[in-house]
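Archive entry: two folds, one per protein. Generate the first.
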Amino acid sequence: MTRTKDRNGILFFIVPARRRFVVLGDEGIHAKVGQEFWDGIAAAMSEDFRKGEFTAGLLRGIAKASEGLAAHFPCRPGSDVNELPDEIDDSGTGE
């Protein structure tokens, strides 16, 4: 997460067995959006999670995070590269 040029990586860490999640932004994005931004994402996700709508909650959180990224780190077609892997780490989930 901390290996991007602009330090704008965002990690969604979800532990279903413990009914816990964390949304972490690297220092570059956090400096731009502040703590209220992350609290808003967590509140929106929690609302859906409480209703058992886990996929909807995660998608809602990702959409809100992307709004902050787009506002402060707009896409530069032709020069943007994917700096981090897209794989989902499901180790420890029993799958």
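Generate the second and append.
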Amino acid sequence: MALFLHFVMACTGLKVMTLKIKQLSGNPGTRIRLSGELRFEHLQEVGTAIQGSDPRVTLDLEEVDLVDIDAVRFLNACEAQGVDVVNCLPYIREWMFQERARENNSERS
């Protein structure tokens, strides 16, 4: 099992937002465990980690406590591409559901 660990820091004003990414390669695929705040500034790095992984990828959000709308849309896109998104807080899952419903309704209009 390989472990890759790196931190993504984004400065916005005076606040530094940190996201820790642990990439665990094993059987039956790769688990990418995220910790901290998942925001727009971090999505490219997470996307790169997903692309560099085995075909079967799981995003583990157990330690993610804050997301923004861009992160919610990113997570929905990941699921649509077959990435499992697990262990997220109920508010994140609900926001993902609501955003999918909103997008589906706007496509029908």
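Annotation attached to the second fold: DSSP finds three helices and five strands in the chain. The chain has one domain: 2-9+16-108.
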